[in-house]
Amino acid sequence: MSTLKVDGIRSNSATSDAITLADNGTCTANITNNLSNRNLIINGAMQVAQRGTSSTSTGIKTADRFQILNANTDNFAFTQKQVTDSPDGFGNSYEIDVTTAESVLAADEYSLVRTTLEANTLQSLAFGTSSAKQITLSFYVKAYQTGTYASSIFIGDSGRAYTVNYTINQSATWERKTITFAGDTSGAIANDNGVGCYINWHIAAGTDYTSSTAHKNQWATFANASWAHGQTVNVLSSTDNYWKITGVQLEVGSVATDFEHRSYAQELTLAERYFEICAGGSVEYVSATGGYLEDVVQHRTVKRANPTVTLISSSENFTQSISAVGGDGNSKIYQSALRANNAVLSGGIYYYYGRFSADSEL
Amino acid sequence: MYKKIANETRSKKDGTTETIVIEAITRISDGAWIPFDEGNKDYQKYLEWAKTNTAEEAD
Q1: Are residues A220 and A312 both part of a single domain?
Q2: Which pTM was predicted?
Q3: N or C: which end of chain A has fewer CB atoms below 10 A?
Q4: Domain housing A7
Q5: Mean pLDDT of B11-38
């Protein structure tokens, strides 16, 4: 039996140790491929698209948890899509496809892709303390236009932001980008169900959003003028243009580990905390005139907040229409119900069923 | 744009009735049921709208 005594193990071509050994008999390892539950992003592989796979509207309409936001654009039209074009090892990506160009970008115009993280999922970052952790964002991106793009993180509770740039080197080619952000010792994130942070990928930004370096490569109070500093590409400029992303991962630490693949079922359950398609129905015998029909539908996943409930479709064998209604928010059960809007008119056997959405997005 | 939801009267098994105050509002465009929960972004939008507008009365 022999013991190898070293303080670190490092590749000949690396600048830092892969394994650092401490004098208390423990070690720290930068392992890139086998840690579970490290990805703070939900639906980073764009597998889940409960609302549909294509939309010409802003907001979350296709891949769950991801959306496009625009401001002041007067010509720009687009389709946001969940598509199958993706790097090896992935099945989907999220695409912004320009269908009408914004050929001249005014100073106050912007467009960005965003995912929003809930505050209580970010407590491990220890932001606002002296122990604030570095975080690393990695993603695969593909676009028609090469050049410099901006990405930014905005912390909801502190109002602080951090903007970085990344470069797309080759047109129409999947490239993996990794960006490490310093920990923010000043801006705490409340341990609640509100907005923790916005992660933005800017795809076009007028000069109102690019003229300041206030929070470029550092945490500082958010400033409009610094939001997309360095963004030189205008994806909106031509209908030839598109921008696609997948494999999005945010993790604690300075190393971009391999993308943590989760199953569709896992991602769906995580996404359902914010949006869920529910279905319910009933066959009921009503013995007297004036019977009242209602069927409680328990959500599969407890919602972040009491959700907005919207009927998608229904079918019934009586003349009263069906509504989807919310439950008792104070109970924290977050169940909803399908009901006939008025009493049925006579005794008999009635059936009805319906689908509805329960939306508690941030 | 928004419409109030009428309170409901429900009969209890002891023969008495109770009034259920519905803490939600309806968005007219799609019939969505929006709960009075400040964590709900649709309710936040309603509150912003209600600063200068008034919801329609319930049926």
Answers
A1: no
A2: 0.91
A3: N
A4: 1-33
A5: 88
